[in-house]
Amino acid sequence: MKSRVELLAVLLVVAGMVACVFNGKDGPRRNELADQTAKGLALEVPDARWEPVFFKDLEGRTSKIGLLSLRRTVLPENDLEVRFWYDHFEVISGVIIRRSAEQWSATYLGQTKPQEPLSIQQESLGPPKSGWEAAWKRLTDAKILTLPDGSVNCKTEVLDGIGYVVETNVNRKYRTYRYGNPSLATCDEAKQIVRIEAILADEFQIPPPK
Q: Across the beta sheet with 103-111, what order do the strands follow?
């Protein structure tokens, strides 16, 4: 009788451990959302097919240079960061704009070899042509902080081409959204993404991806 009780106790412990493991595997996204909310960072992440695929690819590149995930970063008050990514087949490049302790900076990230995703390098950019306040106003007027995700109401029939992914971390809120081939889309939001790309190219002399 005693041995049966001991065996039952062991089985209950093992079952509990297995449940913990599977719960951890089933819900990392929910855990991440809850963890960041508890830290004071609200997350607005679309439930879209592109999102986990893109950020898995992106993480392999950014971890190579020690760039932390923006959605896991709680910035000090009045600081902000915006990342504008060009997603072109196997090539991901981007512009990162930061305001930290009232100081602005911009960084360009790009692959040195198109067929080697981990050949990522970063380069500090100079101040924008119009000055920081004017350039930032141009970007916010183009709705870089408020555009919705384009995967629902702004699709194109073209599968290949270039996509634009934006991440913003402003006022303790993280957002991300994507537009694929916006130059071929007819919605007004796609036109805004094309405008944002043009502003970045103009202000920082960044050639558009080919």
A: 42-44, 173-180, 162-170, 80-88, 91-100, 103-111, 120-125
Name the architecture of domain 43-204: 2-Layer Sandwich (3.30)
Q: Who's near 17: CB < 8 A, 6+ residues apart?
A: none
Computed over every residue of the chain, the mean pLDDT equals: 82
Spatial CB neighbours of 152, under 8 Å, sequence gap ≥ 6: 48
Task: Report strand pairing: 80-88 vs 91-100.
Answer: antiparallel
Amino acid (1-letter code) at residue 136:
W
* DSSP summary character for residue 122: E
What is the pTM assigned to this prediction?
Answer: 0.80
Indicate the domain borders of the chain: 1-38, 43-204
